[in-house]
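User: Predict the complex.
Assistant: Input components as received:
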Amino acid sequence: MSVMTPIFAGLWDHYIFWSLIVGGFAFGWLYHHSFWFTSKDGEKPPNVDELKVGVFPKHYDDMRLEVAWTVLPFILIVWLTYYSWGPLDAMWTSADGGIHGYECEEGQFSNNTMDSSGIISSECYHVIEITGQQWFWSFDCLELGTSICDTGTETMEVYGSVPVLSLKKGETYLATMTSIDVTHAPWFQHLGTKEDSLPGQQTTLWLPIPDSMTEESMVLCAEYCGDAHSVMAAKLIAHN
Amino acid sequence: MSGGDHHPSAWGPHDWNHGAPHNSWSPFILSMGVAIFLFSLGAAYEWGEFQGWGNVPLVFVGLGVISFSLLIWWRQDMSFGMHGEVFEPKSTGAPFQNIDIRKVAMWMFLMSEMMVFTSLFSTYMRYRLGIPNCKTVFHSGEWVEGTAVTCFEPAGHLIASSWFHIAPGAINTFALIISSFTIVQALRYAKKKDIDEDVRRRKVTRYLGTTWFLAILFLTLKMIEWFLGFPLPEFLHEFNHGDSEIKSLYAEGYLINADSYEHKAFDTDYIEKHPEDYSIPEESALYMMMEAGTHPGGKMMANIQVSATTFYVTTGTHGAHVLGGIIGLTYMTLKAAKGGYTPDNAVSIEYFGLYWHFVDLVWVLVFPFFYLY
Amino acid sequence: MRSRTKGAIAALVVISAMLALPSAQSLPGGISGVQQSGCNCHGAVPSDSVVASLDGLPESYNYSETYDITISFQGGPSQEGNVNQGGFHLWASQGSLAVNDATAQLYNENEVGHTEAGNDQVSWTLTWTAPATDTNVDFILHVNSVNGNADGAGGGTSGDMWSKLTITLGGPVEVLEAADPFVVLGVLIIVSATLLAFTLVFVFYRKDPEAFDWDNFAPWLADWLTSTDHKKIGTLYFVAGLFFLGVGGIMAMIIRIQLSVPGNDFLTQEQYNQFFTLHGTTMIFLAAMPMINGFANWMIPLQLGAADLALPRINAMSFWLQPFAALLIFTGVFSGHGADTGWTGYAPYVVSEGAHYGTTMWAAGQIMLVASSTLTGINFLTTMAVMRAPGMGWMQMPLFSWSVLVANVMLFLSIPAFGVGLIQVYLDRVIGTAFYDIAAGGDPLLWSHLFWYFGHPEVYVVIVPSFGIISEVIATSSRRSVFGYRSMVYALAGIGVVAFIVYGHHMFTSGMSPTLRFVTMLTTMLVAVPTGIKIFNWLMTMHGGSLVYRTHTLWALGFLVTFTLGGISGMFFPSIAMDTHLHESYFVVAHFHYVLVGGTVFGFFAGIYYWWPKATGKMLSEKLGVLHFLTAFVSYNALFWPMHRLGVWGMTRRHHTYFVTTEEALGSLPMEAAGWNMFITVSGFIFFFSNFIMVFNMIVSSVRGEDAPDDPWGGWSFEWMTSSPPPNHTLYKLDDGSWGLPTLKDANEHIANEPGWLSSWFQRLMVEDEETGEASH
């Protein structure tokens, strides 16, 4: 599971925990009842609900149980929503004084830090541009210095010629994105994040590069865009 | 399968004393016709370009097959209600007890149709509010003669510009409203118990026929409005800025492929010469830029494809529903002329009436939103 | 004689019309008379003595690679002192050309010619960059060899000779030539009609070998083509649905072959794109929905105690729209021009010229299916509102009927939005409207909203009837009535309502406002509450019961496992920080296959084993049924469970291939992903073939199955109160031994037909008509 970011891993582990509880409960119950309540043919089964063709059978219910398994899952869901709220806020924080502050001035650095749940916050962020088109990505560092942001191309053995985006660890970037033709979506795999790049509109995507970021990772297209969708790749390099 | 009591032909006519038909060729043939039509239309036109006359016969084959299937359907229905053969079951279950089953079905159908028009309206509102209005863009001065800007030009700008221009639309509105009245009258006379059969036949035929005529009038005026335009008599020219005719939308260039649309309202030279027709507000950026000499003025060219698209497709969908009504009315008028509507089966006029009121209601919403606003 | 001939002639006319008329389909590059037939360059005459050559092209090109090419020629008119010189014109149908110097000029990226300066030469050099996709590139070269008589008659061009050279170059993956869609469609019609004809003839023969002649066959066939009987239509839907389930499965197998190893070249990218598009569209619209309609058509009138549906001819219409729609949807798929937009058909790709020609017909076919579904919705809602037997109030309907009701309410309120979207796409592609034209201001998100407003209720439409089947099967198998009937109904209704407000969860990464996304997150999570209620109610139904294990019981219990797993995996998506990673990955593929196959299809299997005896009058073999269940259930889980992991690792959907990280090269997935993909492919094949056990079971049962009693399983609803199979005109065995329409009795204290508070309120809106006593409006 090398590709899970800390924020993802935290949520994942928590959800798996509750899935095991709920699943264990349901499957344990199913397993038990499947064996405990079998009958064999030929036995006269007790007709507790007066089943007879053409007769609507007796109601079989229990108000307390039904309320219980309405209320308890509801509480769990409220809890899970609350638990996911922080990370949600982080992924879509405002560009105007959110957890990444405001755009960096000349010479300012983000110096981002990660808290225990994997949420990254920064002093400021750098703006870059990503443009999608059939079938390649274009990165534009705008006016950032090459130590903060750099672009290039590289020939990879499997993908052929791919654009490269080189970003600095500890810095946070806000990518403003658009597309020239159809909808694309860059998936920064080791950042666990993606957003559509829409033609005729502008969308944004936070790219906070933590100190623990993998040095080389792939960016794949994650919104079907036609014939070469699978090989519309880019490489992200995180350097010190 | 030739006729016999218990197995009437799947081609029609049907003996309704036995209940609804067990077999009918109509569904199979109708589906085939629709498939042929959609297939061949997609070959006859691609990306707005006509692909040659070789594809056109198949389109007509499709339409022909559809018409043929409708004839079979009607052939089975024609005897319904005549000679005492009635089969109009009523609901047993709450909450529709004692209401005709087919009436419940018609209401359900209208609910789904409501969703269709809601989607069309949503599309229109999304674009109308999301794309800047052409007049606003014009007044902002952010354009240059010879380069097209994308903006929204509501059809109302052209159509509601004069009483003459809006006349077809207004007459259409009244035509539909009156036709809703005539269809109710047809129903009333069909249901009346204490009148002479011959009187009933004539009244019902006349009212259905009038409804049919009003619907035809609606579509004719729409075609005039869209494509033909109409000339004005001499004495009215001066009320029309000296123009001898009301131009159709087509003639004004309001088309779905209009990516370089021009109009006198967006032509600074025309505005200067005819200040009584149009003016540029003094607070607007364009006025100030022209005064300052930073804007050369001229004709603004616009890409209004989305405006024309939403207009024609929405009003066209409504028109298609009117056409469907006309087809139904044709059948009903013919049946009425044969004395086919009696109090026993008059309720089938009511089913159509429900549909027709719905079509009328949609128009009452379309007209202000697309023509006046 | 008359009607048969009429029908035959009509069919022949139509089919020959479709095949005979010429098509004029413009090719992407445009047919240019000059390219194909050649020109008389500047008045020259064609001659074999001029030999053109084009050097520098490889055997097959690599994606996006640039090649230096040299154009040259030899020969021409011999004239003293004249070295053969002249000019050239080159077209390349794909990729892009570029010039090196002033001796050549670029007309556009596909067309190059000589300039004035390069007018009298024998060779020129250019560059050509290969395309990024797999395609066949056509090079057409014309060279003109002059005779040098610049001052002569004919303006200096007479006596020149020209020649032509064509080269076709392929890419890394070989691509077959595309065929004309009209021809392909015609072939498809003929082939499937032939196969169908053979099957029908065989079935007819088996019915009664003695009466095997045309005079008996034609009316039998015509009866099936024209019937408005709910049982026949149900059978038609079911057979069609099962057929397309197989077709969709074949497409899935081809997809899995392509994905079994990294970097595979079994399918080109373009072919793969068509396969996953058609797989999705086929499975949802041509397999799942028809099978639901098959069950519904058969069982709803029976369960309600009615004689047929409310609108029988409209019912037939709903069915017949489907096979014709299928023909349209599959247009182009065998010629390489099939729809390649994904079943979700996102704009603006769906209205771009890059999306294949078949996309237009795919939209047209689905428009027909929208009409079909709308009519179905109206029919079933009306039937359930008006034709319930006496004694059957709303709260005495069997749960399968309730599930079909809720499904149809969702369907017919949501599908018109999809229909409007499809019409917009069709019109954009055909007559050139601008709904999704970006340059004109079109908005891709408009399509997303229209589509998912329908798309989300649609997936509940396909699962809810399975819920109904499971309720019936578990209750009957346990010999108990369903636990919490009322809360089951409310849960269904709750799902039906909430379905409409959660569709935004398909658009979390589409750039919508964060507030809307939060609301969607909460409502999506809440859907788990009514669904959970249902699962717990099913488990509780078994409590205190006497479970009798039959094949349908096994499938119902299997459903409880797989659907619960699918539901749990679905809960991961609303947590946004996980969704940004999991969206469009194989985790999504795993989730929806767990709920669609593990939920919907397993529900269908349970329904098949449960209701087969009633519909056909024959029992299915239990042994084969258990074998089917065991092989299918195990291989199914082996097939889809590993996909969760692949998704988290970063495997993207709709990618025709993937690359793993090895020691030499960085890829996008860890090395283990390759092994798991192969494992999935093998499991897929086992799962695909295991379902033929069920088909075999059906055939054996039809031929020599044991006769089925009226009520083999001990169910209580009305379908068990008639014969197996029911008589031609649906009727029921009443208590006094006669046949007629039944009345429902109730083991609880309940006043028959008294409206509840909601119905009473609604009834007050109805106005009694004085004359006829009938309530109008």
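The CA atoms of residues 194 and 200 of chain B lie 10 Å apart.
Let me know if you want any component modeled separately.
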